[in-house]
Design goal:
Blueprint (H helix, E strand, L loop, with lengths): L6 H17 L10 H14 L20 H14 L1 H20 L2 H13 L4 E4 L15 E5 L2 E12 L6 E7 L9 E7 L5 E6 L8 E12 L3 E2 L5 H37 L1 E2 L2 E2 L4 H29 L5 H27 L9 H9 L9 H12 L9
Parallel strand pairs: 1-4
Antiparallel strand pairs: 2-3, 3-7, 4-5, 5-8, 6-7, 9-10
Helix pairs in contact: 1-3, 2-4, 3-4, 3-6, 4-5, 4-6, 6-7, 6-8, 6-9, 7-8, 8-9, 8-10
């Protein structure tokens, strides 16, 4: 790991782990209190200075530029402690990054400092009922209206729906132009015509829901970048943050391995600890090897992004694909080692089993990652190896 994660980031990871031990409860928020707990976590992350890693220094951030290795180090340790804490950090970064990437100086100065301090909550509104992996199928429209736009449409599976202050919303300004006809807008929570339609209940408690834009007026000054640059902004954001999803998977998998190691040495069957049986040892060996491979892929991809390497996108897709699939296997094996205890509601391993599943879906499913990887490999410049 020394190749990809320097001592400064290693210290950051240790700091986050120590912080979670005193500030993050080892347990689920319930669906009834998840919004309240989500707000508390964002405020706490802001006070600790962790959200500042998701903004540039000029606008309240820690570094001159947002760096993927920082985000990965933080997400790994947050996810090890709490899927909700990881989610709140991740979505704050997801909503901040497009503003940092494409926002005007005025937009950055207005929105990024409060997000970096945890005084405001961000959201990234791209997905729609008919537009998930197929982004070009989005139906939300932004029609010119005086010195602004009228937005109409529905957004689905939007994290922080109803609790965010700052939403980055994607809509078609020129539907006939497909990829070059999508634009991005900053929409403030509570804007007239911007409505929370319903909260969505997931396997793992999460502030998420469906939003409707009903003739919602957005001033021209709230557009991010030029008209038609929305898809580019969205894909650039997801491309950078994709490897951090792998980091969250690594954190969940590490917690699962820790739980399995501890339990297998204390639980006795047939007069011996579970860890004395070769069947258990082989499971543990597979879990640890998968975990190490995933961690290396994740931080190699993050380093590639920070170095602006040409193959950074490819490596992020590989890291996200392998790490999330490996985490699912590792958590499943941890649950198997725990036996009946592993399916008891509220047990750490049972929570991990629910928490890990979404990682293979959001920010590009495993199937989409395989298509992205294959497309890159088939390009002429990629045929001679990585």
């Amino acid at each position: 790991m020394d190749f990809f994660l320097d001592e400064e980031r290693a210290r950051l990871a240790r700091r986050v782990r120590a912080w979670t031990e005193t500030h993050i409860a080892d347990g689920d928020a319930t669906d009834s209190d998840v919004d309240r707990e989500a707000r508390r976590i964002v405020e706490a992350l802001g006070r600790e200075g962790l959200l500042a890693y998701a903004a540039p220094r000029e606008y309240g951030g820690t570094r001159e530029h947002i760096e993927a290795r920082d985000l990965c180090a933080i997400r790994e340790e947050l996810a090890r402690a709490s899927a909700l804490a990881d989610t709140m950090f991740a979505v704050q970064a997801l909503g901040s990054y497009p503003i940092a990437l494409a926002g005007s100086s005025a937009q950055k100065a207005c929105y990024l400092p409060p997000l970096a301090r945890g005084e405001a909550i961000a959201a990234f509104a791209l997905t729609e009922p008919q537009a998930g992996s197929d982004v070009l199928a989005l139906e939300t429209r932004a029609s010119r209206n005086g010195h602004g736009y009228r937005l109409n449409g529905v957004k689905h599976f939007i994290s922080n729906a109803g609790i965010a202050n700052t939403y980055v919303v994607f809509a078609a300004t020129d539907p006939a132009n497909k990829a070059k006809g999508i634009s991005a807008f900053i929409v403030e929570g509570g804007a007239p015509g911007f409505l929370l339609k319903e909260k969505t209940v997931l396997l793992s408690p999460h502030p998420i829901g469906r939003l409707a834009l009903e003739d919602c007026f957005v001033a021209e000054e709230q557009r991010l970048g030029a008209e038609g640059e929305g898809l580019k902004i969205a894909l650039s954001t997801l491309d950078t943050l994709r490897c951090t999803v792998g980091a969250a998977a690594v954190g969940l998998a590490q917690r699962a391995l820790d739980e399995a190691l501890g339990y297998s040495q204390t639980r006795k069957q047939f007069g011996n600890a579970l860890s004395a049986f070769q069947a258990t040892q082989m499971k543990l060996a597979d879990m640890a090897t998968d975990l190490e491979a995933a961690r290396l892929l994740v931080y190699r991809a993050a380093a590639a992004h920070d170095c602006r390497a040409d193959d950074a996108g490819l490596r992020s897709s590989m890291a996200k694909l392998f790490a999330t699939e490996a985490a699912q296997r590792i958590v499943d094996q941890a649950q198997q080692i725990h036996g009946g205890l592993g399916v008891v509601a509220g047990h750490p391993v049972e929570r991990l089993y629910r928490d890990v599943r979404a990682l293979r879906i959001y920010e590009g499913t495993s199937e989409i990652q395989k298509l992205v990887i294959a497309k890159q490999l088939l390009k002429k410049e990629m045929r001679h190896g990585l």
